[in-house]
Write a structure and sequence with these properties.
The protein is mostly beta strands. The protein has a single domain, classed as Maltoporin, Chain A (Beta Barrel), CATH 2.40.170. About 5% of the residues lie in helices and about 60% in strands. It contains five helices and 39 strands. The protein has a 22-stranded antiparallel beta barrel. Strands 2-1-5-6-3-4 form a six-stranded mixed beta sheet. Strands 15-20 form a two-stranded antiparallel sheet. The N terminus is likely disordered. This is TonB-dependent receptor. InterPro entries: Beta-barrel_TonB (IPR000531), Beta-barrel_TonB_sf (IPR036942), TonB-dep_rcpt-like (IPR039426). GO terms for molecular function: siderophore uptake transmembrane transporter activity. Keywords: Cell outer membrane, Ion transport, Iron, Iron transport, Membrane, Receptor, Signal, TonB box, Transmembrane, Transmembrane beta strand, Transport.
């Protein structure tokens, strides 16, 4: 692995600063533990390890990120580029009970990220990691108090050489700066900046099926793409968050800029065939493209009431100005090759067309109420007015402007039947972005206009001693954008997701933490295309069920050591629009150990983890008759030290 000297330059300085600290700093990375930190089984990320039945790209069968339902410390951000792990320490999926009391929730959930806010004590954390695939990682995070608790600075830098299951690789440099300023006891301002640079990312192939069965099993960790077919990407996220109290009012505000620049882009498409049989191959190249958005939110609230009854009124304004440049791609055949066999060819000449440009302007004003009565429960109400405008300039000229000015509202409540039993329920209407056309679409990367959505959910929460059980159901309806028989991504009807979900978490005995859950999902499509038989009644790639179970055991008499186990089962799904291709279920098991010790007087953690321990084989669906295989077995060794 080549670690660039420019990336490593700040690391000795951070370690030298750490040596000046007069006392052991607060633990930073040594205590990262996704299982013990989980609030429920619905989805979280701590220290880079994900846990739960849902994630930022899949909640109840939909993607909060694609829908624009992203928050940074509770504030709206129109995220166009992945948030650097040096900038954020993790995220939480907010649905069901965790979304009640959350200002203006959205259908299909919210993913809420947390900044790595620097503290009032000098501290440095360093992490090194190696993978059995051959990848490696170095991370350093520092928090430097400049004026006690009044002013502080956080610095993060990491360099990674990633090796992936498909035999491809990438070099990733990530940097972040985070400040905290408290000009008064009741006011906090946090500016931040981050950059992620991905270079020489060889693109894994997408396997195009025959429309009848999934592709045959392939040899994993064998690169069958083209080394010149890579991607070069830059991602920037910067802005500021402020909160404070002015008289009787609480004020929270955030202003953000989020940018992704794709400097070079390719997609490799391989036709499936019996192993060793000649199969067609093509590469889709695209000119430079970019997504950028300036967004933010300001909210003012006032609370009043008594010790047993609290009320809060809030006024919120959200806005975004988004611009996307896409299109102009060219598809070139690179000749046939025996399926599942590397055969490299020289880079062909691409004839790029003109790009398209779209601009979105949106304002949303909302008023809300939150009430809590001790021993009875809480209620949340919200009403929003949104003004949405999207203008697209295609190669042939401007297209008609898309506008919408809907009224949106939400109502949710919990009722405490007893100290053990609580009922919850909610109804939400939203305006969301549709999924972007996938790479296999003839109009790849195109983003349709915003869509109106609605969600109903309800359930029960039981506090069973040290354990918490949540069981509920949901019903979500949205317009359905998908690939038609001509591979055009467009509105095909209405999609409805109905399901039941379960979460169980807690510590039944000292030293043992359990997190388990699952979702049973009935996803259906309706409309003219379904009625005419052009597409099937089930959406592409949506699993019928997902089950997860995780535990972390830390022996009481030897608490320096712990063992963790994770099991995930993903049910069957459909791989094509006609519903002919059945994708079989698969189960993966992860096993890990932690050992906490002192290294030179500093807290340290050695971690060894095997993912997909038994090397389960399976396919993920990337579009209509488009597949990639799941991650194969990998061993990860990690050393973290808090200075």
């Amino acid at each position: 692995m080549a670690l660039h000297s420019s990336c490593l330059a700040p690391i000795p300085l951070m370690l030298a600063i750490a040596g000046l600290t007069p006392a052991p700093a607060l633990a930073q990375r040594v205590q990262d533990n996704a299982v013990t930190d989980a609030e429920d089984a619905f989805g979280s990320n701590d220290g880079g390890e994900e846990l739960g039945i849902y994630g930022p790209t899949d909640v109840r069968g939909f993607s909060p990120i694609d829908a624009g339902n992203v928050r940074l410390e509770g504030l709206y951000i129109d995220r166009q580029g992945d948030l650097s792990p040096r900038l954020v320490e993790g995220n939480r999926i907010r649905i069901g009970p965790s979304a009640i009391g959350y200002p203006f929730p959205s259908p299909s959930g919210i993913v809420d990220y947390r900044l790595r806010t620097p503290g009032a004590r000098l501290a440095v954390s360093a992490v090194t990691q190696v993978h059995s695939f051959g990848g490696a990682l170095i991370e350093v995070d520092a928090q430097v108090p400049l004026a006690g608790e009044t002013l502080g600075l956080g610095i993060g830098v990491s360099q990674a050489h990633n090796e992936y299951a498909s035999g491809n690789n990438a070099d990733i440099l990530s940097t972040a700066l985070i400040g905290v300023w408290r000009p008064a006891p009741s006011i906090t301002i946090k500016p931040f900046w981050s950059r992620v640079r991905i270079v020489d990312e060889d693109i894994f192939p997408i396997i195009i099926g025959n429309g009848v069965t999934p592709p045959p099993r392939m040899r994993r960790r064998q690169f069958v793409g083209q080394h010149w077919a890579d991607v070069e990407t830059e991602r920037f996220n910067y802005g500021a968050i402020g909160q404070g109290r002015i008289g009787d009012f609480n004020v929270r505000a955030g202003a953000f800029r989020s940018v992704t620049r794709i400097l070079e882009s390719h997609s490799v498409l391989l036709d499936a065939a019996p192993p060793g049989t000649l199969a067609a191959r093509r590469v889709v190249g695209a000119p430079p493209r970019a997504n950028a958005s300036t967004s933010g939110e300001i909210g003012v609230s006032r609370g009043f009431g008594s010790k047993t009854a609290q009320h809060e009124l809030m006024l919120t304004v959200r806005a975004r100005a988004q611009q996307r440049r896409y299109g102009g791609s060219d598809s070139v055949s690179i000749g046939a090759a025996p399926f599942d066999t590397p055969l490299y060819v020289p880079r062909p000449t691409f004839d790029f067309g003109r790009s398209s440009d779209d601009r979105v302007r949106q304002w949303t004003v909302g008023v809300g109420y939150l009430g809590r009565i001790t021993g009875l429960g809480q209620v949340s109400l919200g009403l929003q007015r949104s003004d949405y405008r999207k203008a697209v300039t295609a190669p042939g000229g401007p297209l008609p402007v898309s506008r919408d000015t809907p009224w949106l509202f939400n109502l949710a409540a919990t009722v405490d039947i007893t100290p053990v039993i609580a009922l919850y329920g909610g109804y939400t209407r939203g305006l969301e972005e549709s999924d972007v056309a996938p790479e296999t679409a003839s109009n790849r990367d195109e983003a349709p206009p915003a869509i109106r959505t609605r969600q109903i959910d309800a359930g029960v929460r039981l506090r069973l001693g040290p354990m918490t059980l949540i069981a509920g159901g949901f019903d979500i309806a949205k317009p359905y954008y998908g690939l038609d028989s001509a591979n055009l991504f467009r509105d095909l009807g209405t999609i409805t997701h109905r399901g039941v979900e379960l979460s169980l978490n807690g510590s039944p005995v000292r030293g043992l933490t359990i997190v388990g859950g699952g979702v049973l999902l009935d996803a259906r499509v309706s409309g003219v295309e379904v009625a005419s038989g052009v597409i099937g009644k089930r959406p592409i790639g949506t699993a019928t069920h997902t089950l997860i179970g995780s535990l972390d055991w830390r022996p009481v008499r030897f608490d320096a050591f712990s063992i963790d186990l994770g099991v995930e089962h993903r049910g069957p799904s459909l791989g094509d629009a006609a519903n002919l291709v059945k994708v079989r279920p698969y189960t993966t098991i992860d096993l890990g150990v932690r050992y906490r010790f002192r290294l030179g007087g500093r807290a340290a953690l050695a971690r060894l983890r095997a993912t997909n321990l038994f090397n389960s084989d399976g396919w993920d669906v990337n579009g209509n008759n488009a597949f990639t295989y799941i991650q194969s077995r990998q061993l990860i060794a990690r050393l973290a030290v808090d200075f």
